[in-house]
Each structure stands twice: as C-alpha cells, then as structure tokens.
Write a structure and sequence with these properties.
Blueprint: H1 2-17, H2 23-33, E1 40-45, H3 56-68, E2 73-77, H4 81-85, E3 90-92, H5 102-108, E4 114-115, E5 123-126, H6 130-134, H7 149-155, E6 159-163, H8 172-179, E7 191-196, E8 202-207, H9 222-227, E9 231-236, E10 239-245, H10 246-259
Parallel strand pairs: 1-2, 1-6, 3-7
Antiparallel strand pairs: 2-5, 4-5, 6-10, 7-8, 9-10
Length: 269
C-alpha cells in the first residue's frame, strides 16, 4: 500500500510539473516550426507526445485550424488498414474508426470534415480544398498514388507535419513508391469492398491493397532531408516535430528512387 501511495504521489507531482499546453501555445509553436497560413497541411500525430493538453485532441485540432487560418486546408489520415488486414470488407465513412491515433479519430467526427472513401488509407479534410482532395479516392488504382489525396497534397505544395511521430509514419513515402510503380508495394489481385458514404449510400468496389509486412527504412532519411532544406525540426509542447515541404519531398525522393528502386527497403534482396 505504501509503495502504491508513493507511486500515486510521484505521478501527481509529475503532472503538476509538466507544462500544461494551451491552444494558444500550440499555435505559437506551430508557427515557429514553419506551418504556413493559407496552405495545405497533412498531419501525422501522437497526442500523448505533446504532454498534458488542456482539452485534449480537440484543442490540438482547433490550434491546427487557427495556425493555417480559414483559407488553409487541414488534412489528417484516418486509416483503417488495421481492421482490413484482419478481414473486414465494409468501410463506412461515418462509423469505421481510425487506427492511427486519438487526434485522427476525433478529427474524423469533427463538424464539417469530409472523409475520403478509401477503405484502408482514407483521409479527413477540413477547409476550402477538402472536396477536391477527398473526392474519388476510392477509385484510385493504389491507396496513396496517382489521384489520391496524398499525391495531390505533394503536387500542390502542401506541408506534412509530424506531430510527435517519426518519418516512419510518413504515408507520402508510399506515394513515391506508387508513382514509381515499385513491384513490392501492391497485392496482385483486388479485394471486394462495400463502401458506405456519409449519406449512407452503398457501393461495391474491387480495391487493391498494400502488401503487408514489408519493412521500410523511412526514418533514416530525416538528416538528409534536413540538410537539403526539405525538412524542419522543432518542438510543439513536449513533442519533437518535423515539418516537410511536400513538393520538394516529391521531387527529391522521385529522383533517388529512380536511381535505386529498392531504396526504402530494410532488406533489399
């Protein structure tokens, strides 16, 4: 009992000592990192990495909105590949949960958000370009390649924000793999999915998925991207964050993967 009491006291003291992160401070930190007003920002995130945030995920979402302003478009991946890998074949835009964190899960339910209809790699978007970025994602030949929100964000000069996560979370690397048509990326045959949109309309579609279990070395690119001015590092609250310039990332990585198609693989055999 004494040991348990001591642990509780220590946990309480740590909480008191931690920086209580407000919406206003998150906005300041995001702007200092280089998040642009009026642009597109795609956010990969870990809420717990920030420290104690008053209001939790919703505070972070509001801060992101404020940082990019009313002319900006906020995009957050709302992936559901995890349940699809377990055998699910129904994707419901209003109900299928995100498997990539608390901020993502809260954002998909946020008022005014549009969610794309890809069963494994959907995104949710809010802002002037939300329809343009999310429409017809379910008809793309690959989850992250040509015509997908990820390709469009890169080509339109959007930014990719890693809020307390590493480049291992960078879905845009799959965009490079898809555009380069790397042979290891996709399963050979499609699966049949039932897609239910936000209005409850159902459609049956054949959709190809990524091959699972292929180890990549995405995080190893951090220093080189930084040296080439494509990536900025900084803190938001307690979180170590990265900010990548999408168009520069696309051009830089396409050149290198063209020279070595096995560039991203941990085991290039």
């Amino acid at each position: 009992m004494i040991t348990l009491a001591k642990k509780c006291v220590k946990a309480t003291l740590r909480l008191i000592a931690e920086r209580h992160l407000s919406e206003a401070q998150i906005i300041v930190d995001l702007k200092n990192l280089g998040v642009r007003t009026g642009g597109i920002v795609l956010v990969h995130s870990s809420l717990s990495s920030l420290g104690y945030v008053r209001g939790g995920a919703l505070t972070v979402i509001r801060a992101l909105q404020s940082a990019i302003g009313p002319r900006g478009t906020l995009v957050i991946p709302t992936h559901s590949w995890e349940i699809m890998e377990r055998g699910a074949r129904v994707f419901n835009a209003s109900e299928t949960p995100s498997c990539v964190g608390t901020i993502s899960e809260e954002f998909r339910k946020f008022q005014g958000v549009r969610r794309s209809l890809h069963p494994s790699h959907s995104v949710a978007a809010l802002g002037p370009l939300s329809s343009e970025l999310t429409d017809r994602h379910q008809y793309c030949s690959t989850p992250c390649g040509a015509g997908s929100p990820y390709e469009n964000i890169l080509k339109q000069g959007g930014q990719i924000l890693f809020l307390g996560v590493t480049l291992d979370s960078n879905t845009a690397f799959h965009t490079i793999e898809a555009i380069a048509d790397l042979p290891y990326l996709m399963k050979q045959t499609p699966d049949n999915f039932t897609i239910i949109d936000a209005d409850g309309k159902r459609k049956e579609l054949p959709i190809r998925r990524h091959e699972a279990g292929i180890a990549r070395r995405f995080s190893e690119w951090e220093n080189l991207l930084c040296e080439n001015g494509i990536l900025q590092k900084g803190l938001v609250g307690n979180a170590r964050c990265l900010l990548v310039e999408g168009k520069s990332f696309l051009d830089f990585m396409m050149k290198r993967v063209g020279e070595d198609p096995k560039l991203f693989l941990c085991d290039p055999r």
